[in-house]
Amino acid sequence: MSVKFDLSGFFYKWGTILTVIFLIAFFGIVAPNFLTYYNMVNILRSISIVTVVAIGVSMSLSVGGFDLSVGSVASLANAVIVSCLIWYNLPTFPSILIALTVCLFVGLFNAFLIIIMKIPDMLATLASMFIIQGVAMTYTKGGSITQNMMMANGSTAPGSLTPVFNAIGQVPTIIIIMLCIVVIVQIYLSFTKYGRFMYMVGGNAEAARLSGIPCKKYKLLAYLISSFFAAVGGIMLASRIGSSQVNSGSAYLMDAVAAAYIGYSLAGNGKPNAVGTFIGAVLIGILQNGLVMISVPYYSMDIVKGLVLALALAITYLRKEK
Amino acid sequence: MSEQLEMRNISISFPGVKALDNVSFSASAGEVHALAGANGAGKSTLMKILSGAYAHYTGEILINGQPVHIRSPRDARQHGIEIVFQEVDVALIPYLSVAENIMIDELANAKKRSPFVDWHKIRSTARQVLARLGENIDCNQIASSLTIAQKQLVLIARALVHSAKFLVLDEPTAPLSQSETDALFKVIQDLVEQGMGIIYISHRMPEIFRVCSRITILRDGKTVDARPLKELNYQSIVEKMLGRKLGESFPVRTPKIGDELFSVSGLSDGARLRNARISVRRGEIVGLTGLVGAGKTEFCKAIFGATRSACASTFWKGGSRLPSDPHYSVQMGMALIPEERRKEGLFLGQSVADNITIASLDQFSSRAGFVRRQKEFSTSKDVVAKMGIKCSDVHQMVANLSGGNQQKVVVGKWLCADAELYIFDEPTKGIDVGAKKDLYGLIGALADSGKAVIYASCEFEEILGLCDRIFVLYAGETVAELKNSEANEEKLLYYSTGGK
């Protein structure tokens, strides 16, 4: 047996991590403040929302679907929870519960479009992306919700953001929430039969069906989980910005999709997974942070971001050609 | 002097395997040359090299004694070599017309200045070529609406447009009915008379003897023999392919038949099936036969609850209900080994172990749903050993196994699930003689252990060799029920073709 070092295989497996290490080294050398504890925490904080939303996307990818509505769902969660607290003066936990429940209905709606109406996943969630974006905007009457805002009847909004709610978006809570979700989802996907079934449905839906796996059930579950995490991301976002802003969640869609796809290849997995998605988000976060540190003007940042993304994806996909 | 094609000392390796080792092969125009070998012998790899699919091989290819450079499909085409793969669909663009599919290279690579498509030329050339094949396909038909036999002809027509001198046909008759096969053979004969060289890959010995004049036999990536076909007989070819003597293929059993496990009658699905009927007892192998298109696959799927159907009466262990979804049929103890194993039976990107345990994952999981990896692996190893699946270990990806071993993995999945009724739908399609024999033995052992088996196949030889009782399907209807002792090939053919 020849023990030949498989270079392309090595890059396929560890390319994402190598890119992350390279970026850390690069920014560490050129920007002295980059490698400080404060900045590392800062990066983790900045990626926590993207990571949580991206894990939702990974769940939909795991059953061979694709959830484009996560950004809109995050916006909706943002609007619902802030309105519960400020407009209706509800306590924190009921508000969170309401926001999550509302968003789970979006997941249900997505599953309805995909499973019952048989619309291809990406198109179905594209439609619901618009619908939910519109619902969120209509609900807030096209405006933002802030503390002490003027209500329609001329009075001041009765409620305020509670300290518990504010803590969600602060360090360390926000990072802890993210890490917990990453760990739980990774365990779910790789160690439970439910995760296995999801991968099988994503790998070959017809074979899964003929093996007795209730495919529709797992697709529904995947879209519910996807919306759930998008909602969690929206709540984290609401707490961070302390208000509800129009379409605030939509900015997270593309970063989340990128992170989920970069995560595919981690450790030669070749399928969507939580830890990989986290690493993907870290890559994007480091890039964003480092580029600011070395004073790349904000209007040029997307160029570098896109190029590094293309590089990271090239390393992982080049091998698939074989 | 006719064109000579020669491949000399061809070797190629893939990560972990040496697929071809110093293989030499030669064929000449104006004859049909058979390329035979068991699954995994390297037939397809060799022909892929010839058609330019791989660039990293060593050795040389010569045409009329002149070395030629073939490292890409384009090179191969320039030297007049064309291949029609087994999966005809991958080479066709489903929503384009027949004419466009035939003239695809004209459309894609035409070196002319006009940006407009010359529709008249495209259609008329396509029509001429089809006429040369003696085929009556409407050029404006959309490719996706063709039958598999027609799709093959479209690809052969495409090869003619490129004025191919050598045409490789990879298992062309596997999906064809008898009459379609006959039609194809006529086309092959015509092409040979027109001076084309045909390289014919097949597992089906009778067909090889029918159309081929020379044969090259490969085994484990090496050339074993190459000679005129008339110097060999069926037995000697199979022995060379396997490297050992072939004993009796079918297992010798004394069936111990128990009480009735399953029966259905008056089943119809509103499309192909009407009034289909079958019954099976424990310990019994029941054959379901009929011509291609008689509705065997549909019937198997309907029994398994994979498609909607209505029936007059069913019986399952005393209960009486047809499962409405495979999820329930699996729970009831049914197992389906589907015809399209890659598309419907396997998770190609997953490991052998994952594939084997997927239908019975509950017994490998804790109550909280965590998979017990150790138990999963040890059981998978047992199944792999019991079934004789050749793989490096249970973590190997199923995509890297040969067809026969993949089929064993599908069967292994249901062994693991401990099903009571096994429905096999054309399980030996595209697998080699050795693997077939293993599979027959396995099915016999299943029945002997008290399982009920439904075996659907259009190969009468298999049905007669294996089954205790036989149901014949004609146009979606069960037209005959025969005991093995009263059946023979003539009778089966008689009922299959609509005799009453």
| Reported CATH architecture of chain A | Orthogonal Bundle
Largest sheet of chain A: none
* Number of helical regions of chain A: 13
Based on secondary structure, the structural category of chain A is mainly alpha
CATH H-tier superfamily of the largest domain in chain B: P-loop containing nucleotide triphosphate hydrolases
**Gyration radius of chain A, to the nearest Å?**
21 Å
The CATH topology label of chain A is ABC transporter involved in vitamin B12 uptake, BtuC
Percent of sequence in beta strands of chain B: 15-25%
CATH class of chain A: Mainly Alpha
**What ranges of chain B have pLDDT less than 50 throughout 5 or more consecutive residues?**
none
CATH topology heading of the largest domain in chain B: Rossmann fold
Count of distinct strands of chain A = 0
Task: Note the overall shape of chain A.
Answer: globular
Please describe what this structure looks like:
The complex is a heterodimer of chains A (322) and B (500). By secondary structure, chain A is mainly α. Chain A has one domain (7-321): ABC transporter involved in vitamin B12 uptake, BtuC (Orthogonal Bundle). Chain A is 71% helix and 0% strand. Chain A is built from 13 helices and no strands. Chain A starts with 6 loop residues before the first helix and ends in a 5-residue tail after the last helix. Chain B has 500 residues and is an alpha/beta fold. Chain B folds into two domains: 4-242, Rossmann fold (3-Layer(aba) Sandwich), CATH 3.40.50.300; 260-496, P-loop containing nucleotide triphosphate hydrolases (Rossmann fold), CATH 3.40.50.300. In chain B, helix 7 links the parallel strand 7 and strand 8. In chain B, helix 14 (373-387) packs across helix 15. The longest helix of chain B has 16 residues, at 178-193. Chain B is globular. The termini of chain B are far apart. The model of chain B has no long low-confidence stretch (mean pLDDT 87). The interface between A and B is medium-sized, with 23 and 32 residues.
